[in-house]
From TrEMBL:
Residues binding Zn(2+) 2: C443, C446, C461, C464
Organism superkingdom: Bacteria
GO MF, any single term: ATP binding
One CC-aspect GO term: primosome complex
Naturally occurring in which organism (per UniProt): Parvibaculum sedimenti
GO biological process: DNA recombination; DNA replication initiation; DNA replication, synthesis of primer; double-strand break repair
SUPFAM superfamilies the UniProt entry points to: P-loop containing nucleoside triphosphate hydrolases (SSF52540)
Gene: priA
Cofactor-binding details, from the entry: Binds 2 zinc ions per subunit.
The name this protein goes by in its record: Replication restart protein PriA
Higher taxonomy: Bacteria, Pseudomonadati, Pseudomonadota, Alphaproteobacteria, Hyphomicrobiales
Keyword Transmembrane helix: no
Pfam families the record matches: DEAD, PriA_3primeBD, PriA_C, Zn_ribbon_PriA
EC assignment: 5.6.2.4
Length: 724
């Protein structure tokens, strides 16, 4: 009797908003191991997917559709597949949506393009001519070159080279079209570490050697050499044959970082961020998957690259809000990096001069190991920080800089040093007001004021990008010449600086006048080369940069971040101002930092001036613990939005009625979300607060499972919202 074998089946996850993989049949002759990239039919389409595991057996074997093709790419590593599953479950996203983050490299899965190059095999071809001889001489070194390259180097026409190919003197070889990845030179240590740095580096090296999960908070003041120290851990991981991922919060920081990496390792690492060309994305994705790229420096999405041998992650400036992905699948890249390290059983280093409250608490409670670098490297000292009480020292009318600060800038310039003014506000003025009727010009689609950008002569919404020319008359009462610009943005500060210091060379750094990493790079180089005297900038200048000639830093409005009701505001403002302050006095010359404030008695200002970071963080932590907020409790943000305001209200109320009752869980809201109107959508927010023992995902699923969301409503769920 013939034995009928069931078709072998596997489950395939597709990068679509699907919660689970689908079963497919593996036809004879195909091998589809777990992680293999495959093409499968879905309805009338053919779709790329990843083999997730054995078939579930839920589909009648006779009705299974076959896998059409298995792609010639290294399979997705098991750790990355488990990471996708974990992240999907934690953030309550369909697994397919998370998978999409891991295969976002157009072309990477297509067969690699080859170019044909030629190598010399016959030094004395028949019918030798002087032109042919030149080609032979050129090709004598046995390097493979294209016909074009050979013709150019030999100074002959392409036809001469093709003639030699036809004569069999040159034979084709296939070369990848992509540039190769250089190998880091781990032997080269150019700097000798200080005793404290050595101890720190030794500990990190040991953790890498131990080859198991460990989270280490590298907590060192700005300029203490954290980068130099963790480079030693990177070298160790590379020596062990592992790949390394370094996460940076912003693309703007990449170029200076790459230079430093090159200084230490004599090669540039692979980069991964949204500004890469698709060709470069393909190259890096493949290089990582095939293990040719040993080190990747990237933004948060680099977490989803298919490293087969990842052995160390470094999260630089771990406190940065930019690590939180706020759209689509929302996740915190620092936290998810810890998860990835834990799944992969290797160490992770979180580096910061102003650790997040979360990481500080984790270190205090022993979940993370803390390594402290308390002093700046070499002779550099931490800058002195002074609060300027703007109530006592008001600037002149229409000016924004206090006399004391202006004086300090003048002194710095006279000494041949640089000064920097920081204001975290793009544009010229944050508000345009009518003197006649009091009307404030708002964005038509958002609950926010339009910001005047004088260089562009436009009013711009910083939330949705809406823009309009600056009107001549008040749009409300029609009064002419009645609109006035209220408050300063960086452009206005630049204007004041230019008036006060007409001789000084001024650089304005804000995302409006810097497009792409290239122009950042040029600006930063110019500053380092002392082609600039005064820098006026938004948060772009706050972070990471090393400007040896910068001694005076003025914060134009130190209170800015404290105004909104966000419970993280104090922590955030402290971190930002500490980072800005850290730009001053990084070399031989001592730095002086001035905070213009109307609240010098505020805990943030007092802690900055007194240099009492740890006491400040402890008080913040105690305050959060009292009310059960993260990291002491769990928090979920839910935003209900619709273009139809009444519908949004109604649905939010209905959701509130369906909220399950559970011990240790409280539901706050619905209340207007922080941006109650955004891009024309009315937004209402719930905050779900729970103790740490609660399975908040299960709670959320129970709740959302009850709700039928109408098409005109969007409900977005944010586990661990950054702002609360
Ligand atoms: P951090 O990352 O803590 O702000 P960096 O690693 O950027 O500190 O170091 C600050 C500056 O001091 C850099 O220019 C760095 O090259 C230099 N530096 C740090 N440690 C050493 C060392 N051991 N020898 C020479 N230069 C060092
Ligand atoms: Zn808007």
């Amino acid at each position: 009797m013939p034995v009928k074998t069931l078709p072998k089946s596997v489950s395939v996850l597709m990068p679509l908003a699907l919660p689970a993989p689908y079963d497919y049949e593996v036809p004879d002759g195909l091998i589809a191991e777990p992680g293999a990239y495959v093409i499968v039919p879905l309805g009338a389409q053919q779709i790329l997917g990843v083999v997730w595991g054995e078939g579930t057996g839920e589909v009648d074997p006779k009705r299974l559709k076959p896998i059409l093709e298995v792609l010639d790419v290294p399979p997705m590593p098991g750790v990355l597949r488990r990471f996708v599953d974990w992240l999907a479950a934690y953030t309550l996203n369909p697994r397919g949506s998370v998978l999409r983050l891991a295969i976002r490299a157009p072309g990477a899965l297509e067969p690699q393009r080859m170019r044909t190059a030629y190598r010399l095999v016959d030094k004395r071809p028949a019918r030798m001519t002087p032109a042919r001889q030149r080609v032979v001489d050129t090709a004598m070194d046995q390097f493979a070159r294209t016909t074009r390259e050979l013709a150019e180097e030999a100074g002959v026409s392409d036809g001469v080279v093709r003639g030699l190919v036809d004569a069999g003197a040159l034979v084709p070889v296939d070369l990848p079209t992509e540039a190769p990845f250089p190998v880091p030179d781990i032997g080269a240590v150019s700097k000798s570490l200080s005793p404290e740095q050595l101890v720190a580096a030794e500990t990190l090296r040991k953790r890498v050697d131990e080859n198991r999960f460990a989270a280490i908070l590298l907590d060192g003041v700005t300029g203490s050499g954290k980068t130099e120290v963790y480079f030693e851990a990177v070298a160790e991981a590379l020596a062990q044959g592992r790949q390394v991922l370094i996460l940076l919060p912003e693309i703007a920081l990449t170029s200076q970082f790459l230079d430093r990496f090159e200084g230490r390792f004599h090669c540039r690492p692979a980069e991964w961020h949204s500004e890469l060309s698709s060709r470069e994305r393909t190259r890096v994705w493949r290089g990582v998957a095939e293990g040719r790229a040993r080190v990747v420096v990237g933004a948060r999405s680099a977490l989803f690259l298919p490293f087969p041998e990842l052995g160390l992650i470094v999260v630089d400036e771990e406190h940065e809000a930019a690590f939180k992905q706020e759209e689509g699948v929302t996740y915190h890249a620092r936290d998810m990096a810890v998860v990835r390290a834990s799944l992969g059983q290797f160490p992770i280093i979180l580096s910061s001069a102003t650790p997040s409250l979360e990481s500080s608490v984790n270190a205090e409670q022993g979940r993370y190991e803390r390594i402290v670098l308390p002093e700046r490297h070499g002779v550099a000292e931490l800058p002195s920080i002074t609060a300027i009480d703007m109530r006592a020292e008001p600037p002149e009318r229409g000016r924004w800089l206090a006399p004391l600060l202006v004086n300090e800038i003048a002194n710095a310039l006279a000494a041949g040093e640089q000064a920097m003014l920081f204001l975290n506000r793009r544009g010229y003025a944050p508000l345009t007001l009518c003197r006649t009727c009091g009307h404030r010009i708002e964005c038509p689609q958002c609950s926010s004021w339009l910001v005047e950008h004088r260089f562009r002569r436009e009013l711009v919404c910083h939330h949705c990008g809406y823009s309009a020319p600056v009107p001549k008359a008040c749009p409300s009462c029609g009064a002419e010449d009645s609109l006035i610009a209220c408050g300063p943005g960086v452009e206005r500060i630049a204007e004041e600086v230019a008036e006060r210091f007409p001789e000084a060379r001024l650089a304005v750094l804000s995302s409006d006048n810097l497009r792409g990493p290239q122009s950042h790079e040029e600006m930063f180089r110019a500053i380092e080369a002392r082609e600039v005297d005064i820098i006026v900038g938004t948060q772009i200048v706050a972070k990471g940069h090393h400007f040896p000639w910068l001694t005076v830093v003025g914060v134009v409005d130190a209170d800015l971040g404290l105004e909104n009701g966000d419970l993280r505001a104090a922590e955030r403002t402290f971190q930002l101002l500490q980072q800005v302050a850290g730009r001053a006095g990084r070399a031989e010359r001592p730095g002086r930092v001035f905070l213009q404030t109307y609240m010098p008695e505020h805990a943030v200002m007092r802690a900055l001036v007194a240099g009492k970071r740890d006491a400040f963080l402890r008080r913040e932590a105690e305050a959060r613990e009292r009310v059960g907020l993260p990291p002491f409790g769990r928090l979920v943000g839910i935003v209900v939005s619709s273009e139809n305001a009444a519908l949004a209200q109604k649905f939010a109320r209905e959701m509130a009625r369906h909220a399950p009752r559970a011990e240790d869980v409280s539901v706050l809201g619905p209340a207007p979300a922080p941006l109650a109107l955004l891009r024309g959508r009315t937004r209402l927010r719930f905050l779900v607060k729970a103790t740490r023992n609660v399975n908040i995902q299960a709670y959320m699923q129970a709740w959302l499972g009850e709700m039928k969301v109408p098409a005109a409503i969007r409900v977005s769920v944010d586990i661990d919202p950054y702002s609360f």
